[in-house]
Write a structure and sequence with these properties.
heterodimer, A: mainly alpha, about 80% helix, B: alpha/beta, Rossmann fold, 2 domains, 6-stranded mixed β-sheet, 4-stranded antiparallel β-sheet, 13 helices, about 25% strand
């Protein structure tokens, strides 16, 4: 194993161990989105009667939301963990070792991505148990896991960037309501073409979260919708690229060792 | 041990934007295998110096070579030969002692076969074998400090930086830490740069002491040489009647220079004057005393002689100075 791989493994191992030892970082990202799904599926079921609604199961329609909501939780977890390391001086301890900045970032994010994949498997299981049929079949489920990987990586890197810039867990936590605004002003509860309030439709169309949700949703209820997949993966990869670049830049400033 | 495990500092300066000059043109040299005690009150510049010497903070000007490597131009090489236990014991409360050792051994690139052995060896050395699989969140302050020391030693550094390693520890833990630090220097030839605000610690452990005040080194030498420099003992008197303090003060003035004291009245004795002279004078004036003590010079006396303040008084002054605008940078000293 190369030195870089060993370092990534060491940091990732710590990240996973930390997550597993604090149920508060694992359970809410699983339970909260599913609870919201249950409430929405029960209350908004009549929406499926609207002409042009893409499915007769609101549960299948809304199952895409937990995937993105869970990934947004990843933003908080990644950022809060890193901010705590900065505040406690743990990052200084790591700075005194030969740890490379890239290995630190990759290791931290590996833990978050593993958690994101675990969440995705859980949501898929919830869908299957509650009778949702995945229109894209087992291949679509595999693509869904790849998508969960990319989205967790992107949001995790975004959380890391905020942590590295602010060095404050509280500042990262303050992002939580902002992520919810993005989630709610999206196509999470209705297809964009059925939105009658124009400003909301425009906002949802400008909101990248809509395309992430629609990518997942297409695999669940439509099958293989190339346009939705390209848009979803395109937005997700763009978030990864921009967030990683920002996080790497911020890390350089934070690791001020000579 | 290579002769390069020394520390050389020339005209080192560290300024903070809109802040104080935390380190102000200090020069020092620490010889291989030596324990160098860096003594000073809070805010004097001790921790800032350590951060610069451990490559975590670039100096504003001046040069510093650690283990033969320049701290600015050769940071990674410096980090390869040093171990450091910084002021904040930065441990992860959710990880066990063994988890910490695993992380540290992996990051330092120890071969897989060596990791477990090295971790066990160091955990045993600092007395944490029994607690190795417990989460650090449940450790006492002393246990955390000992684990911190073990982590600093993982890669066998030839130079060790310890930033106030015994602050907040009970006497037993402090003594155990002193033993270990002493053993590292005497038996393994490790050069130790130790900051402390405890006079006794510097006195007991250090081969040489540098006293830092407001970012400047005001005195340097072995503890005994520094005390010899002050030379003369002091007499401390507590009168039975507190109203007699002024009379006692006036009487003591005849025997040397008065010293600041809170509970007692004190004087640094002139050459040729002894305790018996003071006792006779007090008796002659009919002043009853509750307590009278002859004290040999201490490092606090050295500090007082060099700065005009006691170490404790300077610490309080530093706290007052820092209170209006406490920043992380300002408190790094």
């Amino acid at each position: 194993m190369t030195a870089l791989a060993t370092q990534v493994g060491a940091v990732a191992g710590r990240s996973v161990r930390r997550s597993l030892r604090q149920p508060a970082s694992v359970i809410p990202p699983l339970v909260f989105p599913v609870a919201l799904l249950a409430v929405n599926a029960a209350g908004l079921r009549p929406s499926t009667q609207l002409p042009g609604f893409p499915t007769d199961s609101f549960l299948a329609f809304a199952l895409a939301v937990p995937f993105i909501q869970g990934a947004l939780f990843s933003t908080m977890n990644a950022g809060t963990d890193l901010a705590r390391d900065i505040q406690t001086g743990f990052l200084s301890r790591l700075s005194l070792t030969p740890l490379r900045g890239s290995a630190l970032l990759a290791g931290q994010l590996s833990g978050i991505v593993l958690l994101g994949l675990f969440q995705a498997v859980f949501y898929i299981a919830v869908g299957l148990v509650t009778g949702v049929r995945f229109a894209s079949g087992p291949g679509g489920i595999a693509v869904l896991l790849v998508f969960a990987f990319v989205v967790s990586l992107g949001f995790g890197a975004l959380g890391s960037f905020f942590a590295l810039r602010t060095g404050s867990g509280e500042a990262v936590q303050a992002l939580f309501p902002v992520t919810f605004v993005f989630l709610f002003i999206s196509s999470m509860n209705a297809p964009r073409n059925l939105m009658t309030v124009e400003w909301f439709r425009i906002a949802a169309s400008a909101n990248p979260v809509s395309y992430l949700i629609e990518c997942v949703r297409s695999l669940i209820i439509t099958g293989w919708d190339v346009r939705a997949l390209v848009l979803g993966f395109g937005v997700a990869v763009a978030i990864v690229v921009v967030s990683l670049a920002l996080a790497s830049w911020a890390l350089t400033g934070r690791l001020s060792r000579t | 041990m290579a002769p390069e495990n020394s520390i050389e500092v020339e005209k080192l300066v560290r300024e903070f934007p809109k802040g104080p000059r935390a380190v102000d043109e200090i020069d020092l040299r620490v010889e291989p295998g030596e324990i160098y005690g860096f003594l000073g009150p809070n805010g004097a510049g001790k921790s800032t110096t350590v951060l610069v010497l451990t490559t975590l903070l670039p100096p504003t000007s001046g040069t510093a070579r650690v283990g033969g490597f320049d701290v600015v131009a050769e940071g990674p090489k410096v980090r390869g030969v040093i171990g450091a236990a910084l002021q904040e014991v930065a441990l992860d409360p959710l990880l066990t002692g063994r988890d910490h050792m695993r992380l540290q051994t992996m990051l330092h690139g120890l071969a897989k076969a060596q990791r477990r052995r090295r971790a066990d060896e160091l955990l045993e050395r600092v007395g944490l074998t029994q607690a190795a699989d417990r989460k650090v969140g449940g450790y006492s302050g002393g246990m955390k400090r000992r684990l911190d020391l073990a982590l600093a030693l993982v890669h066998g550094p030839s130079i060790l930086f310890l930033d106030e390693p015994t602050t907040g520890l009970d006497p037993q833990s402090r003594s155990a830490m002193w033993d270990e630090v002493s053993r590292l220097a005497r038996h393994e030839g490790v050069t130790v740069f130790l900051t402390t605000q405890y006079l006794e610690e510097a006195d007991v452990l250090a081969d040489r002491v540098g006293i830092i005040h407001h970012g400047r080194i005001v005195a340097e030498g072995s503890p005994s040489a520094l005390k010899d420099e002050i030379g003369r003992p002091s007499v401390h008197v507590i009168p039975c009647d507190p109203d007699d303090r002024q009379r006692v003060g006036a009487l003591l003035d005849r025997f040397g220079e008065p010293l600041a004291g809170e509970d007692d009245v004190a004087v640094r004795l002139r050459e040729g004057v002894g305790l018996t002279d003071v006792v006779r004078a007090l008796d002659g004036d009919g002043i009853a005393v509750e307590d009278i003590e002859l004290r040999a010079p201490t490092l606090d006396d050295v500090f007082l002689a060099k700065t005009g303040r006691t170490l404790e008084g300077a610490a309080e002054e530093a706290v007052v100075e820092l209170e209006p605008e406490p920043t992380a940078e300002a408190t790094a000293g």
